[in-house]
Write a structure and sequence with these properties.
The protein starts with 8 loop residues before the first helix and ends with a helix. It is built from ten helices and 18 strands. With 374 residues, the chain is α/β, with parallel strands linked by helices. Helix 1 runs antiparallel to helix 3. 43% of the residues are buried. It has two domains: 158 residues, no CATH class; 166 residues, no CATH class. A hairpin with a 4-residue loop joins strand 15 and strand 16.
Length: 374
């Protein structure tokens, strides 16, 4: 088998020649983000917009709206499903005098799958990258390493750990030198997702479903807002909502909002970011027989660049199609099965199937020996 990391070896040789290497024990150690990373990123994307006091749909409905399932045989709304994944490995530190930087290598990927009329799924497009991450400015030869990686081919990327990005800088873990690399890799994965999503050849009415919320990159770079949405499986739990009860208006938390939400129902739609995004919750299963009352609930984000009112019938249609997506689930394959949509799960698997194993990483990512450095 050809070493998939061969393109990174010249960069490792630069670091081994110019600096002193402190290798990771076992050649490579995977960096893991917190298990609730999706919820943490959801909080970052929301910013200070945690009190949702704009009901953005028209006509106004009750707090809970029944949404019968709309199977694809009735109307095939969702055709494309997009997801990404990232795995990051710490391979050591490079030291120059009293300066040093951790060095990481990440596998990132994103894939879109397409569903045919028969229900058969096929890959529409996928991209994978191998990323070298370090603090470029911490050592004098950082730019040389960057140039070496960027010259190795389009499947390789260099990322400066000190560069800012919306996700890494928004979480405490993302600000720490060691854990920052995993968050930076996740951000690069999001960028790759956006690249794939914008370049799909979609016909009018072929909706694209994105895994996760819509960051500003989707609102800013996709100003037309045509036929796509984000599905958040692990939503930020500190959101509050301003609702009318009779003639009174009151603020309720997300637990209160979802306590009365039954399977096959959605909530009112609220405006995020001054109405540039419409968001609402859909319960696809439970809460009976689930471990936690918020399981089985999705939060939907629909781009609305103009900030105008969104038609309730459109929200009903989207929600009904989402309820129908619950019919298959990766139970036992993913701890989030209760809120996981099978087509998104397949997109995730399409990404991960393009990754090399930990054993290959440890065998293929070895620092040059002393003889090579000399």
């Amino acid at each position: 088998m050809r070493n998939p990391f061969e393109g990174l070896r010249p960069a490792l040789q630069v670091m081994a020649k110019e600096g002193n290497i402190l290798p990771a024990t076992g050649q490579a150690i995977e960096d893991l983000m917190r298990p609730d990373q999706e919820e943490a990123y959801d909080r970052v994307r929301l910013g200070n917009d945690t009190l949702l006091d704009i009901v953005i749909e028209t006509p106004n409905r009750l707090l809970y709206v029944p949404v019968p399932a709309i199977h694809r045989s009735e109307k095939h709304l969702f055709r494309y499903f997009l997801d990404g994944s990232a795995r990051t490995f710490y391979i050591g530190n490079v030291v120059e005098g009293d300066r040093q930087t951790p060095v990481h290598v990440a596998q990132i990927g994103a894939a879109a799958v397409f569903r045919e009329d028969s229900g058969r799924m096929r890959s529409a497009r996928s991209e994978h990258r191998l990323v070298l991450l370090m603090d470029r400015d911490a050592v004098s030869f950082g730019e040389k390493v960057e140039q070496t990686v960027n010259g190795a081919g389009t499947q390789f990327e260099f990322v400066n750990l000190k560069e800012a990005d919306p996700l890494s800088d928004g979480t405490e873990a993302g600000k720490q030198p060691r854990s920052r690399a995993a968050h930076k890799a996740n951000w690069r994965m999001r960028v790759l997702e956006g690249l794939i999503g914008r370049n799909l050849s979609r016909k009018a009415g072929e909706w694209l479903m994105l895994d996760g919320g819509l960051g500003s990159e989707y609102i800013r770079d996709w100003p037309e807002g045509r036929d796509y949405l984000g599905v958040v499986k692990s939503s930020y739990k500190e959101l509050r909502f301003c609702v009318k009860t009779g003639r009174q208006r009151q603020d309720i938390n997300v637990y209160q909002l979802l306590a009365g939400l039954k399977a096959g129902e959605r909530t009112l739609a609220f405006g995020l970011r001054e109405g540039a995004v419409a968001t609402w919750y859909v319960r696809i299963r439970g809460p009976e027989y689930l471990d936690f009352p918020l399981m089985g609930v999705l939060r939907i984000e629909l781009p609305n660049p103009g900030g105008e009112a969104v038609r309730s019938d459109l929200i009903d249609e989207i929600s009904g199609a989402l309820v129908a997506e619950r019919c298959e689930t990766p139970h036992g394959k993913d701890v989030r099965w209760h809120a996981h949509l099978y087509a998104i799960f397949l997109a995730e698997q399409a990404v991960k199937n393009g990754f090399v194993s930990t054993e290959v990483i440890k065998a293929g990512l070895r620092w040059p020996t002393q003889a090579v450095r000399e």
